TrEMBL record:
Record has Thylakoid as a keyword: yes
Native source organism of the sequence: Erythroxylum novogranatense
Gene3D superfamilies: Cyclophilin-like, Oxygen-evolving enhancer protein 3 (PsbQ), four-helix up-down bundle
Gene Ontology molecular-function annotations: peptidyl-prolyl cis-trans isomerase activity
Pfam families on file: CYP38_PsbQ-like, Pro_isomerase
Key words, A-Z: Thylakoid
PPIase cyclophilin-type domain residues: 293-474
Matches recorded under InterPro entries: Cyclophilin-like_dom_sf, Cyclophilin-type_PPIase_dom, CYP37-like, CYP38_PsbQ-like, PsbQ-like_dom_sf
SUPFAM superfamilies in the record: Cyclophilin-like
Protein name per UniProt: PPIase cyclophilin-type domain-containing protein
């Protein structure tokens, strides 16, 4: 909402009113300062407005752009509309009746529509349009963020994008756009068939047979694209959802085969740190120490321990993930105490065991091929991370006590994202400020049951040991 100021209704009347912003998806909306200055000169002799002047001014962040309408014919037409619709009583000098105010509001709505349709300016950068749109496609689940982070073959990424678009279309209530969904699947199938050789060629030779089997199941197998296409034709949203999830899982498996290591070279000064050159899986066992219990599993009984599984991503945060994986292998988190806040479950600072490396802050911006180091992202300027913090169960390192340009050597936290406490675009106010290196994929429901004083009974690296490179192995 913006305020339009100095609207003169008569020689002695000034009104301050609110103007509704343009549709957020419009290409004409601006994040710059936007104001409308409307002035009306009155002539009491016919009890109506006889001249109208419209000035539209957009104050850009870098200088000011003044726009004055040169459409004189349109303005004259507006003047006639004003003269015909806004007839005020002679008592307007002292007070503005509801009648006049209603007419004025109608006029303002017409003027706003006129400006939006007539303005030739694309007033918002595309990055900010994505950020402020309520339909922004920032990943909202750990699985989605992890899938997008895989540095795979471009053709596979195009297939993935077409499939992910369907997941957004499925959220539309009532009449779902099945025609658009069908088009997306046909597009993905065409790419899969036409680019089969190049896609399979990007898989290492020793993994190609497995990749070929997965690829065949993606096209024709149970839960593949053909079955998804038929489910869409049947207009069964439940079947579409199941088939889509299966297809996306298969796509992720193929992409992981295409990415046996990092897609970029680490700066030489950072080779002294442990690094994870792929994915790892860490399993935590959380224990209650105050006699309370976790909610029972289906058909089970209340329990004093519960398991949480985290996928650690070295593709986007190799140093942070590597340091964390090494700490897990060394048993540094066994017995660690947990503290709960409204937004996070945090481990103790680890000062007693003097473990870990103080790794530089590491964040990979969306659309980039390598992480930034010792630099935060300016979300307000449209910079978004590949691994966003704004996901329930995101796992990130705390800041170093010495400098916010470095992560803490030991202390990490589970982020308890809550949309009700988020900012514009549903993003956390801390987005782009921490090194996120993974997501909770199993046991997310356990996070809300953890209380201050609970402990990590054990932490194990159950997958990904072969991707962990220690400094003395360089």
């Amino acid at each position: 909402m913006r305020r339009a100021k100095n609207l003169t209704l008569s020689p002695s009347i000034f009104l301050d009113f609110k103007v509704m912003a343009f549709t957020l998806s419009s290409s004409f909306i601006t994040s710059h300062k936007l104001s409308f200055n409307l002035s009306f000169s009155t002539l009491i002799q016919r009890n109506h407005f006889v001249s109208t002047h419209l000035a539209f001014r957009a104050n850009a962040a870098r200088g000011q752009v003044a726009i004055r309408s040169a459409l004189h014919k349109s303005i004259r037409s507006l003047e006639k509309d004003v003269a015909s619709c806004c007839v005020f009583p002679k008592s307007l000098f002292i007070s503005t009746p509801a009648y006049g105010l209603k007419k004025l509001e109608n006029l303002v709505a017409v003027l706003l529509l006129f400006v939006q349709l007539a303005s030739p300016l694309p007033l918002i950068p595309s990055a900010e349009a994505v950020l402020y749109s309520p339909d922004t496609k920032v990943p909202r689940t750990g699985e989605l963020a992890l899938r997008r982070a895989i540095p795979a073959n471009p053709n596979m990424k195009n297939i993935q994008t077409s499939m992910e678009d369907i997941s957004y279309l499925l959220r539309i209530p009532q009449r779902k756009p099945y025609g658009t969904m069908e088009g997306n699947v046909k597009k993905a199938l065409k790419i899969a068939i036409d680019e089969k050789d190049s896609i399979l060629a990007s898989i290492p030779a020793e993994l190609r047979e497995k990749g070929s089997t997965l690829y065949s199941s993606l096209i024709e197998g149970q839960g593949g694209l053909q079955l998804l296409l038929q489910s869409i034709k049947d207009q069964d949203p439940d079947k579409v959802s199941v088939a889509l999830a299966t297809s996306l899982d298969t796509i992720a498996e193929i992409e992981l085969l295409q990415a046996p290591g990092l897609s970029f070279l680490l700066p030489g000064q950072y080779l002294k740190y442990p690094r994870l050159t792929g994915r790892g899986t860490v399993e935590f066992t959380i224990a209650k120490v105050d006699g309370s219990t976790f909610s029972p599993e289906v058909g089970g009984e209340p329990r004093q321990t519960a398991k949480i599984q985290v996928i650690v991503d070295g593709y986007s945060a190799p140093l942070t993930a590597g340091n964390f994986a090494k700490l897990v292998v060394d048993g540094a988190y066994n017995g660690a105490k947990l503290t709960c806040t409204n937004q996070a479950v945090i481990t103790d600072n680890g000062l007693d065991n003097n473990s870990g490396y103080s790794v530089p802050l590491e964040i990979m911006p969306s659309g980039q091929f390598e992480p930034l180091y010792r630099t935060t992202l300016d979300v307000q300027d449209g910079e978004l991370p590949v691994l966003p913090l704004s996901v329930y169960g995101a796992v990130a390192m705390a800041h170093s006590e010495a400098s916010e340009e470095y992560s803490a050597p030991y202390q990490f936290f589970f982020y308890l994202y809550d949309k009700r406490s988020a900012g514009l675009g549903g993003l956390s106010f801390d987005e782009g400020q921490f090194s996120v290196f993974g997501y909770t994929t199993i046991g997310r429901d356990i996070l809300s049951q953890i209380k201050t004083g609970d402990v990590i009974q054990s932490a194990k690296l159950v997958d990904g040991q072969d991707s962990l490179i220690l400094p003395n192995e360089s």
